[in-house]
Amino acid sequence: MGTNYAAIANASSSYLLLIFFFMFGLSHEQDFSISSGGTLRTNETLVSAGGVFELGFFGVPSSGNRYLGIWFVDDPQKRPVWVANRDNPLTDSTCFLQVRDDGNLILEDRRLTPMIVNSGALSAYPNTTATPIDTGNFVLQAGANLVWQSFDYPSDTYLPGMKIGWFGLTSDVPTPYFLSAWESSTDPGHGDFTLGVDYKVANLTVYRGDSAHMDIGYWDGKRIHLLFANYSNSFNFSYFSNPNEAYFTFTTIGNYSMSWLVMASTGLIDEYTLSNRGISMISHSLCEASDFGTGAASSMNNETAAAKLELSGEKDQELPIGYMSPEYAMNGLFSEKSDVFSFGIIVLEIITGKRNVAFFDTDHSSNLLGSAWNLWKEGENTELMDSTLADSCSSSEVLRYIQLGILCVQERAEDRLSMFNVVSMLSNETMALPYPKEPGLLRYVSRNSTTEGESLKIQQGQGSQTVQSVISVISPR
């Protein structure tokens, strides 16, 4: 029987095809994961299965430092959404990420002691696989068992499916899952600002250090209200709360493939979207409350009366005289609530059409705050209203805005509204306003001209202070 060379050739071709596809499959697997004993080197990357995210090393030219990070494949700038070694940069140009035989992820270069990436959740399994996935999460798994994931250690980017909040509230040391801003635009290290959850009131809150800095959203029991300019409304937020945990998470809705939030090193929150046109920034969170004082000053033709406080032991400082809070005018103390006071003055000035510093009632004993307080108590709000508002505002609206302004200018800082509450009350006309107490700095006892400016003696509580005013030019920031 003769040899069938055609059959042998066909069989050989089939085997070669099988070997080719087998090898292709292995190489494709290596493209998006590494297993025990595997290594990712400096110029290599792992791409998620759907081609959305890429994991690899990136450098900072100004310092020469290198970091392990994740970025969008379609982002030409390769802005990281997560950084593994934020505060421990690699300083050598040759870097390695390895899944060690004990199942842990190791990051190292030729100069430093190896760092365990998953140090917060060490592997109990010898054989693990590390994989970036299409959500932007980077997971370490042993079969079906999740050992560690990057979503539990956020950087400055809030991606869909990520949880921001508190976990282990019933334990001795609850664990916060908070965003943390970069130190600067070129330094991924932990900066001053974080984005977390005030679980007592279900707010998304920006913190500066350990102190609440600014609320950017609140949960009304059904949905979140984000305090953004030009907000795209592409977020579907959910809030989960029980005795042990409280957190926000979200999915993307609408016309975008994905939407996410990024905390800038300044503490502001930016919204980004991914669509078929690429990545774009949609909006910024609210400006900081501290912009109100200088904003008011710079709006007055860049010329305003500024107070030079002559307080014992204090250096000379300048502020718009009509916008100073009592604690600053009397003791030189300043806080975020000082700017709430300034905002309240602006509200009352808009309603009346008059400047606080130039307003005195008929007996010259009460300023704008005193007149607003007296007329509001008597229900005579229309007497205070600027006549140009008569056709656009009802008397009930004017009364509400006057009450809101008075709530902002309370004598004690702790009695004033927060800017978060102000925005909530302005956007929700059915929200009840608390009854205000008497405002601060109601009366100017004397008003005397001097060669250098104008001296105002302010009566507040049991004491008084003399404030010397000068004219200053305020330049926009």
Automatic annotation (TrEMBL):
Pfam families: B_lectin, PK_Tyr_Ser-Thr. SMART domains: B_lectin. The chain crosses the membrane at residues 6-26. Keywords: Glycoprotein, Membrane, Signal, Transmembrane, Transmembrane helix. GO terms for molecular function: protein kinase activity. The keyword Cell division does not apply. Residues 31-153 form the Bulb-type lectin domain. Gene3D superfamilies: Bulb-type lectin domain, Transferase(Phosphotransferase) domain 1. This is Bulb-type lectin domain-containing protein.
